[in-house]
Write a structure and sequence with these properties.
mainly alpha, Four Helix Bundle (Hemerythrin (Met), subunit A), 85% helix
Length: 130
């Protein structure tokens, strides 16, 4: 094996570990994002988590261009699933925004579950990302 091949393998492993570390942090943050307290604060927490998770997906999408075809195809399948989770999450978040009174708290439970699904989808993609 050449030094260049070894360096590429090392870089992929290092990148994979950095993704795993980010997902570990984000996964633990999801548990704290519950529809409690003030509606605007809850929405802000959701939006921040979504923004961070989307940046991970965008980074993975960019890096996937350099993967072998087999892995690119697998990642593309994962990415499609993740995008579906994202659409569901955005719909639920919009419902929370539009809800009046205390109804947002009940709708927020669905948003929190959608965030968990979105996070889990990304986590699964990261674990398979080589």
């Amino acid at each position: 094996m050449t030094n260049q091949e070894t360096d590429q393998i090392f870089e992929r492993q290092k990148y994979h570990q950095s993704l795993m570390d980010k997902m570990s942090i984000e996964s633990s943050s999801v548990d704290t994002c519950r529809p409690e307290g003030e509606k605007t604060l809850y929405i802000e927490k959701l939006e921040q988590r979504v923004k961070t998770l989307k940046s991970i997906v965008e980074d993975m999408t960019e890096k996937s261009k350099n993967l072998e075809k087999k892995y690119r195809v697998e990642f593309e399948e994962d990415r499609k699933m993740i995008e579906e989770y994202y659409r569901t999450l955005k719909e639920r978040m919009n419902s929370v925004r539009q809800a009046g009174g205390e109804a947002w708290k009940e709708l927020g439970k669905g948003s929190s579950r959608a965030l968990e699904n979105f996070t889990e989808g990304i986590k699964n993609a990261v674990s398979r990302f080589k």
